[in-house]
């Protein structure tokens, strides 16, 4: 005869609870937004709505510069056309060049418009009184940028990489000749020139005699933009060389801050971004980045906010117009758009998927924020047992309209939420600053984990 001993796990062992909280910029930045901004403090609110100003008969926008008389000039590719766009968005073809691309534009102190081209490295001049004239044959293949120092015009060229000093009659001299293949960008600051190059991603300071001093050599291939911040510091955007494979070490795109004493350090990095553009915006910087296409606002110490995530636009150029509005040129289509400060009327945000690591039954969903009159916030959830949402996941739940309501999505391991924001009044936006989802492990039936047998030994009674 034997005794049977059963060892079981009871339901009481399975009552683990978990809370998922999101309240910081990095929390929300893992999600995807359409029409939603993420503030530097992590709050969600309605984003400004992109407005198309003009669509041009070209393939893409390569350069933009303000027109002192109003509107702007736009250089395009892959047909090398130059357009003038007025304040109402009416576009006029000024010059259909024989070149493929017009990479650089600037208006000189005499009112003449200069345009730099590729692949023949020509500089055209337009005075508005006649056809464009070929002012300079640079001897390089690319003219990438222009800068003015006390009315003196300088041009950045590539293959070979040089900085040229150009007279009004088109005569020119090599002002600075680094070892780099391309000088991509120029910045005039404090009566000096600063140059960013491609090949080794360098930043040079160039004095009035054309003597260059290397300030910084980055790990990226190209210094793409140089801008001056409100305190006089220089900031540089940098683009890496395309990675050779998934297993190769990815060099990030970056924004660097160059201190007054020469110290250089990154304030933003992203290993997925392939195209970046940088402009100064008062005490902040505005940075467009691709993959996904978005516009970020950066502070001098690197605090960032998502201004807007673009749905169809990939910016190639950023420019502030005379009225202070931000203008964006398209890299994949020749569209110039305006981004006003006023927010749109509707937008949504989808969080990243959260793994609760348990089969959870959901509790309350709580959020904090503000809802001015004529605005609304609703939250939906969906759940599933695969890492990525697919057809096995539940549908989005009915909208929760108040904080503290119980989540109705079915028990599961993974959960995702979606925030909808609406406004029916100009200038009014709701604001969501934090969200919390609670779950507790579903009680399971007891299960036998071990079975042991023992021989029966009857107790002997004493006599």
What does this structure look like?
The structure is a single chain. The chain is mostly beta strands and 463 residues long. It folds into 2 domains: 11-46 and 347-441, Sandwich (Jelly Rolls); 51-341, Neuraminidase (6 Propeller), CATH 2.120.10.30. It is 1% helix and 56% strand. The protein has 1 helix and 40 strands. The strands form 9 sheets. Strands 2, 3, 4, 5, 34, 35, 36, 37, 38 and 39 form a 10-stranded antiparallel β-sheet that branches. It has a 4-stranded antiparallel β-sheet with strand order 6-33-32-31, with no helix packed on it. Strands 7-8-9-10 form a 4-stranded antiparallel β-sheet, with no helix packed on it. A hairpin with a 5-residue loop joins strand 17 (162-166) and strand 18. The longest helix is centred in the first third of the chain and has 5 residues, at 25-29. 41% of the residues are buried. Mean pLDDT is 91; it is low at 2-14.
């Amino acid at each position: 005869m034997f005794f049977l001993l059963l060892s079981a796990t009871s339901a009481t062992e399975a009552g683990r609870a978990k809370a998922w909280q999101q309240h910081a910029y990095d929390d929300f930045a893992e999600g995807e937004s359409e029409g939603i901004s993420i503030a530097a403090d992590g709050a969600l609110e309605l984003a400004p709505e992109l407005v198309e100003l003009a669509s041009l008969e070209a393939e893409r926008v390569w350069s933009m510069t303000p027109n002192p008389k109003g509107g702007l000039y736009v250089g395009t590719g892959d047909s090398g056309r130059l357009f003038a766009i007025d304040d109402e968005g009416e576009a006029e073809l000024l010059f259909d060049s024989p070149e493929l691309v017009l990479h650089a534009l600037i208006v000189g102190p005499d009112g003449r418009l200069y345009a730099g081209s590729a692949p023949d490295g020509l500089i055209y001049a337009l005075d508005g009184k006649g056809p464009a004239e070929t002012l300079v044959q640079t001897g390089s293949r690319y003219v990438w940028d222009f800068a003015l120092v006390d009315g003196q015009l300088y041009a950045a060229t590539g293959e070979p990489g040089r900085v040229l000093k150009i007279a009004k009659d088109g005569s020119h001299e090599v002002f600075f000749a680094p070892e780099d293949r391309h000088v991509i960008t120029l910045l005039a600051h404090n009566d000096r020139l600063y140059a960013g190059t491609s090949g080794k991603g360098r930043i040079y300071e160039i004095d009035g005699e054309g003597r260059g001093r290397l300030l910084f050599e980055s790990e990226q291939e190209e210094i793409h933009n140089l801008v001056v911040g409100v305190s006089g510091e220089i900031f540089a955007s940098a683009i890496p060389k395309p990675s050779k494979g998934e297993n190769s070490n990815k060099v990030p795109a970056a924004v660097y801050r160059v201190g007054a004493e020469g110290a250089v350090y990154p304030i933003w990095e992203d290993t997925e971004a392939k195209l970046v553009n940088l402009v100064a915006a008062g005490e902040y910087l505005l940075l467009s980045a691709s993959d996904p296409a978005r516009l970020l606002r950066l502070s001098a110490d690197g605090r960032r906010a998502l201004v807007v995530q673009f749905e169809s636009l990939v910016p190639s150029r950023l420019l502030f117009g005379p009225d202070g509005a931000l203008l964006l040129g398209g890299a994949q289509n020749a569209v110039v758009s305006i981004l006003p400060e006023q927010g749109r009327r509707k937008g949504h945000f989808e969080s990243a998927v959260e793994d609760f690591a348990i089969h959870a039954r959901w509790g309350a969903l709580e959020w904090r924020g503000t809802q001015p009159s004529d605005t609304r916030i609703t939250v939906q959830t969906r759940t599933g047992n695969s890492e990525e949402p697919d057809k096995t996941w539940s549908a989005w739940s009915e909208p929760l309209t108040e904080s503290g309501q119980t989540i109705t999505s079915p028990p599961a391991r993974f959960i995702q939420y979606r925030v909808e924001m609406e406004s029916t009044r100009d200038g009014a936006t709701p604001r969501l600053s934090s969200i919390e989802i609670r779950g507790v492990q579903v009680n399971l039936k007891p299960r036998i984990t071990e079975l042991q047998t023992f021989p029966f030994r009857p107790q002997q009674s004493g006599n």
